[in-house]
Structure formats: C-alpha cells, structure tokens
Amino acid sequence: MAIDSYPGSVRRFNICRGTLNSRATAFLTNVYDLHPRTFGTFDLVLFFGVLYHLRHPLLALEKIHGICSGTLLMQTHGYEDPSLGEASVAKFHPFGIESGPADKPRFDPTAFWVPNAACTRDMLLHVGFVDVEKIAPGPGAIFCASAPQRSKGTPPNPAKAPWS
Fold this sequence. Notes:
By secondary structure, the protein is an alpha/beta fold. The chain is 24% helix and 27% strand. The protein has helices at 7-20, 36-39, 57-67, 117-127; strands at 2-4, 26-28, 42-48, 68-75, 90-92, 97-99, 106-108, 113-115, 130-136, 142-146.
C-alpha cells in the first residue's frame, strides 16, 4: 500500500502497479490521515523524502508510529554542523528553501524543516520508536527504527478502509 497527497503520484503508482501485475495500491491521502483502523498496520514502513516537507513533522511521525508494527526506514533531508555536537536542532524555513544542484538551483516552497541527525533521532524516540539508528550518512540520511512491540502487520477494517 502507498499513500500520496498528489493525484499525479497516485496515478503513476497505479499505472506501474498494473504494468507489474502488482496487488499494491496507492491512495490519495496524506500522512496525517493514517490510523490503524482505516489502514491497518505494517511490519515495514518506508517514509522517504517527506518529513522536511511537512508543516507538522512530529504529528506525522506519531501517525506513522501508530501504523508501524515492525520496522521504519526513513530518509530525510538534513544538515550537520560539527559545532553543535549532539545538540538536537532543526532549521525552520517558513517560506521554503533553494534546492537542486548548484548549477541549476531552484526554489522549493514546500521544504520547511531541516533537522540534523540528532534531531531526527530524537523525534523518532519522542514518538515512541526504539532502536533508532542512522544507517546511511549524508544530508539525505537514512534512519532505521523499530516499533516497541513488534508484531505482524494487520489488514485494515474493510468497513473503515479508505476504499469503502
């Protein structure tokens, strides 16, 4: 299952699904709508390239924690400043940031929060994940975290699922 708040992304996902004869389905919704009663739970959640675009990143992580019954793999844009040590810090860009390659920069009005690795780790711990570990370095750091009580994912309640 996949979710996205952009209709074009959902459409492209479902086209690929059909081409690959996959049973996976994408739904037009956003991370704030996630709830175990409507979407079920998942033993693997992939959350890549989204956190820094959100106005309410902690709320999003709480929602993800609620549907993750196993492992979370999360990639997010970040920054590091060695002078901060282990201080948990995020830069806030209320009107977006310049992004892209140096020779072709572009303005991204949807990028708001850029946490350092300590902040990303601490946000994951704060919402209840355990065994949080940065598994890939760099400004696009990847983190692995676990649900505190691991279990097999459960399907959604068909009467409350997004397709009912």
